[in-house]
Amino acid sequence: MAHTRTPSVCVYCGARPGRDPAYAHEAETLGRTLAEERWRLVYGAGDVGLMGIVARAAQAHGGETFGVIPTHLMNMEVGKRDLTRFVITETMHERKKVMFMNADAVVVLPGGAGTMDEFFEVLTWRQIGLHEKPIFLLNTNGYWNSLLALLDHLIAQGFADSSLKDFLTTCQDVPDLAGALRAALS
Q1: Sheet containing 85-89: which strands, arranged edge to edge?
Q2: What does the pLDDT read at residue 76?
């Protein structure tokens, strides 16, 4: 019998919970959904903010978890050592590379500059043809509306082709996201 690999979903999100309780609620729902769908969570290995919420929910529902954290963030992001797989890297670049290489799809939850850095890196790589992995923005309560407007502005000002927005799918909630992931991972 052929062995089929578990689909893996890389989640980029905040190391803080944010002000809107909906962010934490959707992070918890996503973690539970990943476990229920038998999709492995790949994330930044922190036990704080939305990162910790997603991971703890996935674990609580029997999900497989793969965390990657650089040595300099072990204390700040409280490295979550009880994951299915826990990898410590030397640099942020190495962290991002290991996370991305071990994922079949990328999901971006609310977050700050680090989350946007990760998002723009994988979006740029997709734009220049380095990968074809699907990228999903979870737009909880319109969190990413300003980012989407910025992408429209880049396109309108001639700094990107209109196809740029074709490389991402915006979802309003976790059920919407789960359906889009199911279609992408099947």
Answers
A1: 85-89, 65-70, 40-43, 8-12, 105-108, 135-138, 168-171
A2: 80
Do 76 and 62 touch, CB atoms closer than 8 A?
no
Task: Return the residue matching tokens 């769908």.
Answer: 37
Distant-in-sequence, close-in-space partners of 141: CB < 8 Å, separation ≥ 6: 20, 22, 23
Query: Measured on CA atoms in the order 122, 125, 127, 132, is the torsion positive or negative?
Result: negative
Question: For 24-79, how does the pLDDT look when each residue is reduced to its tens digit (9 = 90+)?
Answer: 999 999 999 999 999 999 999 999 999 999 999 999 999 999 999 999 988 887 88
What's the confidence (pLDDT) of residue 4?
58
- Cα 183 to Cα 53, 105, 129, 178, 186, distances in angstroms: 25, 11, 21, 9, 6
Mean pLDDT in the chain?
A: 95
Bridge partners for 67 per DSSP: 43, 86
Q: How many CA atoms lie within 13 A of 62 on its CB side?
A: 3
- Give the Cα separation of 155 and 17 in Å (integer): 31
Q: Locate all alpha helices (DSSP H) within the chain, ordered by sequence.
A: 21-36, 49-60, 92-101, 113-127, 145-156, 174-185
pLDDT number for residue 78: 83
Domains of the chain as residue ranges with CATH: 19-181 (3.40.50.450)
